[in-house]
């Protein structure tokens, strides 16, 4: 079985992820597509033990402590929720992680009316902007 990584640059930038965090989010997205979720306590979780990630994604750090921090960063960003089930690390993805790699419209681009309220000063002639 091959693992492919789909980097979602716009979502990564929107969430403030560094490249390593973005690669982990992409790898976890791949797990969603490949494996069946585990039902637990009314939620669906995917198994993603640190050792599994280390063995199957050589682009990521090979230290458990570093991976733990990366998971916590994705959790703090709101992309995943992490729990331990019987000594296994499991996560449930947020909607944006489920849609990783799909079309993404961020910020004011989502609402054209909001973009009109806050015109971009870069559109003005820079010489005129300095005079104002």
Order of secondary-structure elements: HHEEHHEEHHH
Broad shape: globular
The multimeric state of the shown protein is single chain
Please report the total strand number as a whole number: 4
Helix-and-strand structural type:
alpha+beta
Helix content: 40-55%
Unreliable spans are: 108-119
Q: How many helical stretches? A: 7
Biggest sheet statistics: 4 strands, antiparallel
Biggest sheet: strand arrangement: 1-2-4-3
Computed CA radius of gyration, to the nearest angstrom: 19 Å
Estimate the mean pLDDT confidence: 81
Through-space gap between termini: 61 Å
The percent range for strand residues is 15-25%
Description:
With 132 residues, the chain is of the alpha+beta class. Helices cover 45% and strands 15% of the residues. The chain has seven helices and four strands; from the N terminus they run H-H-E-E-H-H-E-E-H-H-H. The protein has helices at residues 9-15, 19-34, 50-56, 64-77, 95-98, 112-117, 126-131; strands at residues 38-40, 43-47, 80-85, 88-93. The protein has a four-stranded antiparallel β-sheet with strand order 1-2-4-3. A hairpin with a 2-residue loop joins strand 3 (80-85) and strand 4 (88-93). Helix 2 (19-34) crosses helix 4. It is globular, with a radius of gyration of 19 Å.
């Amino acid at each position: 079985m091959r693992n492919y990584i789909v980097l979602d640059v716009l979502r990564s930038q929107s969430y403030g992820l560094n490249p390593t965090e973005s690669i982990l989010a992409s790898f976890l997205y791949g797990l969603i597509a490949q494996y069946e979720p585990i039902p637990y306590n009314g939620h669906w979780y995917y198994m993603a033990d640190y050792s599994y990630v280390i063995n199957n994604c050589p682009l990521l750090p090979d230290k458990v402590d570093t991976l733990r921090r990366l998971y916590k960063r994705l959790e703090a960003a709101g992309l995943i929720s992490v729990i331990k089930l019987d000594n296994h690390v499991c996560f449930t993805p947020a909607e944006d992680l489920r849609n990783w790699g799909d079309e993404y419209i961020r910020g004011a681009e989502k609402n054209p009316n909001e973009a009109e309220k806050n015109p971009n000063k870069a559109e003005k002639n820079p010489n005129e902007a300095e005079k104002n």
